[in-house]
Amino acid sequence: MDALRGLLSPLTSSNVTNPIHDTLKLVVIGGTVETARRVSVSAWNGFIDSFFLTAHFSQEDYPYDWLMHWLSKQPAWGRSREFDITTRTVNRNGLTQSTSGDLEDDEDEESEDLATRRRRKVAIIPSVDTTHTIYYRGHWLRITRTKRFSEYGQCAELKISVVARNNDILKRLVLEAKRDYEKDAEHRVHIFMADTLYGGHWRWNGARQKRPMSSIVLEPGVKDMILADCKDFLRSEDWYAERGIPFRRGYLLHGVPGSGKTSLIHSLAGELGLDIYVISLSSKGMSDNTLANLMGNVPSRCIVLLEDLDAAFTRGVSRDEKSTGAPTGSSSTSSTSTSTAKSKEETDDGSTLSLSGLLNSLDGVAAAEGRLLFATTNHIERLDPALSRPGRMDVWVNFKNATKWQAEGIFKCFFPVKTAPQPTDPKDPASQQNLAVPKRQRPSTITHSLSEEEVCVLAKRFADAMPEGEFSVASLQGYLLKNKTRPRECVEEVDAWVIQERETRAKLKKEKEEREAREKREAEEQAKKEKEEEAKKKAEESSSSESKTEEVKVEAKTVPVQVTPKSETSSQTENVAVPAESTSSSDAESSSSGEDADVEESVTSEEESNGKTATEASEQKAKETWVAVQGHPPDQSV
Ligand SMILES: Nc1ncnc2c1ncn2[C@@H]1O[C@H](COP(=O)(O)OP(=O)(O)OP(=O)(O)O)[C@@H](O)[C@H]1O
After folding, report:
1. pTM of the model
2. Residue 627 lies in a domain
3. Domain of 453?
4. Which atom in ligand 1 lies closest to the alpha carbon of residue 265?
5. Which residue is closest in CA terms to ligand 1's atom 5?
6. 241 with 377, same domain?
7. ipTM of the complex
């Protein structure tokens, strides 16, 4: 201390008034302060490094979602003093809409009219790069949300630091966040869509409410069979491993549109607690590599859905690896004429999926295991047998138009009774689980005052009026939706609806046939036109090459004729050089070149007698003549 005082004494002593000393004093004090600051910062960093544990969570992975979900429930997170206000989802899962800082509009809740409008929830999320301190199980967590650029674009990251001896506290935090998240996700199915950009990756597309299996009306036993098969598969990993069979199972759901294929998959995902990963094979930029990438990156327990498998074929998936996707084997003229254009378009958008690429991605060595593959198609006849063979598609289910039994079931689903029926007879349709009775049915959703008996009678009448296998369940649903508050009228008017529906269909069918015929005619005309143009082009090309040959011959064989022109006209006429083998087919070009050559000769003779001026005039004349002859039609030039 004395030494420091001694050091500073010349600076602090009052008798020093020299300005140099004052400056020195300031420099020393400033340097001391800065050094002290640096030492303290590095000491703090050293302390942080040796005592703090830091974990990073990237938005691209699930733990980020769990933690964001957990954080959204922490009051400290909601009380942030620097925040972003957003109407977008707080995280990828869409579950954390109610953070403790969310803005609620009470008037919105009360107003009946506003209930029909789309509600937008305003959420408060802490700004990026601000640090929050949250107390958790005896530890202070320092949490920072940052943004960085990844290969898929901008991506958020969470950094959590905690003073602790080991990482147990962080493990506990992640597990708790995961449990919390899964509990909230219980009633939802997460949908991921294939994104073909950047070589193929999965994009979260939303979390949908689970659909109860009871709301799917299929022929008795079908739903139960598929559900039991899926459950059995998911339980049998060891069984598959012992036998060396790849742990994969494929389901091919085929049949008419609007018969419940997609709905069943959604419902199964909810029942089994699995996420759905959707791939559209006909999407832009889909190639063998992209598909392999996508299929190799699905988690082990999930449903992979290949929607409209046949669409890939109409786009032209071919077994040939080199195929660019041009449609093959189509009998229609229009498809032949447009195949080149289509194939070009497909190459342009990078869609080069081949059938072998598709097969490899389904069961090649790199294909993911433990997933349930569901493929849907409206045209099973278009599928290559290799694609639908057992091992790739183990279970086939045919979806048909609604039967009377299904019509009865869907009616009961729309007009449920307050107390669920207690079935006793297994042969009675009503006793099947198939009949839709929403699980989480609120009293308010029942918009009629029918007794159970009356519902059954009306449902029977509705089914009797419905022709067997003529309409899809989706169209029945459309009719019931229009009448969702008037069950009796709905049954009374069903006959009229059937007639009207038939008429509409006939009309649409006729229009479609006419349109197809017109398109076919147009395509044929177009093809004919293209052919004619091509032939014309070829003829022109061959004639021009012939005339070039003639020109060469003319140059070689022209005999110079020295004529003194009397007048321009006579000069022009007499200077026409006729090649020894000239034919009338040598046309305008041959005459013109002949004339050109001959004019040159004339110019030479003129030059000798009349001098340079005459030469220039002649040259000008030659040019004019050339242009004039070029413009003549062939027969006139001869
Ligand atoms: N069997 C069914 N049970 C209950 N609802 C059904 C059934 N079939 C169709 N629907 C209803 O019809 C609509 C269309 O069904 P969905 O999309 O599942 O049909 P799809 O067979 O997948 O049709 P597409 O082949 O055109 O994709 C849905 O709203 C669904 O509720």
Report:
1. 0.62
2. yes
3. 404-492
4. 18
5. 216
6. yes
7. 0.98
